[in-house]
Target: Small integral membrane protein 1-like
Amino acid sequence: MEPQESTVQYNQWNNSQDEVSMSVSTLESSGCERVYNKLCTGKLGIAMKVVGGIVLFWVLFIIGYVTWYYIHKCK
Model:
């Protein structure tokens, strides 16, 4: 994590109106962080996790099937 710079400004116009404004500026995110934020958060992140889970299931299923086939193959 990179440090963030923040500033707080307080302006008092009169006794009945107060205004507080806060701004936070961050340094430029690295490429990996931007890709992670794009692909792993929000609705796209949920979709990527679902698709990844389905793909992982089928890969393990196929590996298990092929392994079972060669172990139990008649000689």
Strands lie at 4-12, 18-26. The chain has one domain: 4-71. Residues 42-71 form the longest helix (30 residues).
